[in-house]
Specification:
heterodimer; A: 324 residues; alpha/beta; 7-stranded mixed beta sheet; 5-stranded mixed beta sheet; B: 409 residues; 5-stranded parallel beta sheet; two-stranded antiparallel ribbon; 14 helices; 7 strands; disordered C terminus
Chain lengths: 324, 409
Amino acid sequence: MATLTMAKAINDGLRAAMERDPKVLIMGEDVGKLGGVFRVTDGLQKDFGEQRVLDTPLAESGIIGTAVGLAIRGFRPVCEIQFDGFVFPGYDQIVSQLAKLHFRSQGKVPMPVVVRIPFGGGIGAVEHHSESPEALFAHVAGLKVVACSNADDAYWMIQQAIASNDPVIFFEPKRRYWEKAEVDVTATPPPLFTSRLARPGSALTLVGYGPVLKTCLEAATAAAADGTEIEVIDLRTLSPLDLDPVFDSVRRTGRLVVVAEAPSEVSVAAEVAARVQEQCFHSLEAPVLRVTGFDTPYPPSKCEEDFLPDLDRVLDAVDRSLAW
Amino acid sequence: MSVPQSWTPVTSGDSAAVPSHDQVVAGLKATDEGGADLVQLLTPEGERVTDPRFDRYAADIDLDTLKSLYRDMVLVRRFDREGNALQRQGQLGIWVPLLGQEAAQVGSGRALAPQDMAFPSYREHGVAWTRGVDPTDLLGIFRGTDHGSWDPLEKRFHLYTIVIGNQCLNATGYAMGQKFESKVGDGPDAEATICYFGDGATSQGDVHEGFVWAAVYDAPVVFYCQNNQWAISEPTERQTRVPLYKRAQGYGFPGIRVDGNDVLACLAVTRWALEECRTGNGPVLVEAFTYRMDAHTTSDDPTRYRLADELELWKLKDPIERVRVNLVREHGVGQEFFDGIQADSDELAARFRQFCVDMPPPAPDRMFSKVYAEPSPTVEAQREAFLAYHASFSEEPLAGSSIDAGSDV
């Protein structure tokens, strides 16, 4: 058992995957000598060499497009996109090639590529450094999309994503990179594409993923002080969604609040709400509520505290659901 | 704070010292003439000419090999014409003709070693032929039954890429992998990659990025641009101010323009380029200067944007006719040979046609197959619901063939 930051846990997970399989490569901007702008790949180039940890030219389409070619050749590239808002030059290669080659080739050409994207706000950054574009990837058939919320999960999930024979978009909540947790490297982790019960409860179900999971747990703690036991579920996988635990929970609690930083329209939170009303219609005691970012461009950072779902907004939604 | 001021260039007394904008552009402009740098080994009139740089890359081409190059081009043209006809008769949704580009494709394709890898665009039926992909394997794409049915790794010929320029990065990544696996060098197992794209694609960012990446990683990739003068309706001068092969210099690797209607020159230049890559001197840009003699696709109407005179001029440079003339005049090949090739091509066309009309529709639930390597519960649930929905109408099972009915995800 070790106490690690999420950044270090991902670093250890990457190292373990690279030691296990010589075909695993890391590629991205500043990932080598610098160790990445968040230091997630710190020390890996020193230990594995420049041919396995590639400081690439500054071109995101190039990062993804060459990773596709390397995967055709039999490598397992792990691409780092430096910030969420910089992924879009690579979006064409992700959607047109990475997501479709397995289907186009009728299974003859798998695409075991991981695209790591630090996402979300809360770090006081300039424009394009705080976005939550996960729905744009979850909407694309052929991709799998996951988001980690804590160091222990991150350590295992990155290794499982690298071992997957499908392309995985791996979202890392950048404002949680430096938060520590116990990581048991001898444990048997749950499968990658499963959601996780983070806190049991009976009065209401709270679903989140990535950076807001901590906010959800804080809300549950605050509500418990008032005698309300909230069940918290960490989605972990955004595509495919693993909603059976959510359905089971909502059938017991009758109430659901979904929390995410991304804007609400046509979002992962919207998909969760739609599926829950399909599957749990007669169990619902209140409409499914969402607490999300607003349908605006991510604001200047002096406004971001009002943009991001915080404890008060989550508790407000909990109160509205319970009062229905 | 400074105040912006207008700036006036200082004019010298000698106006000839600084070329005008028009003079600069005139010296750079892309042209429909091949120009002095064009590598040619066989003239449009069928005369074998020498080239001190590239003769040795065609020195082993004996009469039998020349005949086989001719045969390849005739057969490729024949099934290409059949593709057009099948579309006109409603058997194909679309066909992408290669008419006029047979030499550019057969010449470069025949230069590849078995271990080399090729990344095509979507017009490379002639390259497919040289890689041993049966022409009938191309039909599914254009009939709408699949997105490509050959095994790209076995054939060393990637699936067609329709998004313009995407494959330049995929090819570069593949070539980087060849280098990482130490397949570059003097050994007999040395490998290279060739990437096909057109003049229109050269405007794409992915082609630029492919050039940058290949250069900084010394990737063993031949960028093979078939400049067929037209990107649907847009002429090459809408894509570039400089002849395309000259762009390579800016990226730090050699660029060369070859007569794309000369199968010997295309073979020789591509052999050289591949050898450069295999031995660690890659990448290389080859511009095969050719002409799209037919429409962009069967959905296109070139009479709306180009003059028939232009086509008549290029017919005089036909890639197949010049080889025929050479075989007759310089080698005394008789009519019997040409009749035999004609019979072979008619037989191929008949087989191509019959295969096409016999193709069964895919099973409707095939769309749920192979979306992922590892099953997705979302897709599986949708497949089950889809099958149950159809089962509610009929006792009959769904018609159509399935690559993997019942056994796959």
